[in-house]
Amino acid sequence: MTDDEVQTLGPIDYVIIEFPPGEQNFSGEVIDEIRALADAGTIRVVDAIVIAKDENGDVEAVELSELDDDEDTLGSLVEDVADFLAEADIAVLAEAMEPGSVAGALVYENVWAAPFAVAARKAGGRPVADGRIHSQDIAAALEADAEADAENEQQEVSE
User: Fold this and answer.
1) Of 50, 51, 52, 112, which one has the greatest count of Cβ atoms within 10 A?
2) Closest CA to 113 of 12, 19, 11
3) Can you say whether the dihedral through the CA atoms of 140, 143, 148, 151 is positive or negative?
4) In angstroms, rounded to a whole number, what is the distance separating the alpha carbons of residues 60 and 56?
5) Are the C-beta atoms of 108 and 33 separated by less than 8 Å?
6) Consecutive H or E run containing 62
7) What pLDDT digit, counting tens, does each position of 13-44 carry?
8) Torsion over CA of 24, 25, 28 and 33, rounded to 10 degrees?
9) According to the model, what pLDDT value does residue 58 have?
10) What is the pTM of this model?
């Protein structure tokens, strides 16, 4: 990748999803959603790995680039796979996994944010922090707020 190409990149993120034993219901829906995001130009898949850890703790990992170019696989999304995820990353991920589980690791460029990132760089800006609030955390916070509101209403009624 050239310096010019790097200058036009959007932010690169990753997500790792574990599917515990007994809760694996692979219907192709996840791949369909990733494909829809890529086709819409929202993301560009940079790297992806599927990791399976059997009941004995043995690990098998399959890189995105090793998948068939079949329309129903992530292999069809390959542009310029950068192999961001190295063997050491796979070992760390596998260590955290429950035996009998399967995990997917996806590294992607936020293409939608590239124009903003380019404009910020041209203006002399540089990232100093970023973060993410996971949807489960938002749901938990909203649930806690609702419970607190219900308790407050109950206390007001009893007073």
Assistant:
1) 51
2) 11
3) negative
4) 12
5) no
6) strand 59-63
7) 989 999 999 888 888 888 889 989 999 999 98
8) -80
9) 93
10) 0.73
